[in-house]
Amino acid sequence: MNFSNQLVRLILDFYREDPEEYRAIALLQNCRLSRRWGTLRIACNDVRTAEDLIRAIDCIREPVAKLRLAKRLKVFVDGAFTKVFPVSAPGYGTDAATVEWGKSGFFF
What we know:
The protein is of the alpha+beta class. It has one domain. Helix content is 34%, strand content 22%. The protein has a 4-stranded mixed sheet.
């Protein structure tokens, strides 16, 4: 098992008892994941997969934050950068949905 598959399995196992959220992010199995410099890169093969994962980004954020895997998530399609999402540290009063990049918020 390579490192990308281990990251996918780690995130998917977080929701093994919640089938609805598991289905929302099951498309991660079709993507390549890698970590570098506090960033979890999600490389998707097509735009549709990327859009579906972006809609379910909160389901990806939670295990990444709790397991302290990365500070931000970056979604790529065919090697081209698409979008970046901050991952907030749990328990510090930072709501990841409302944080404006560079203005405030505590990131681990």
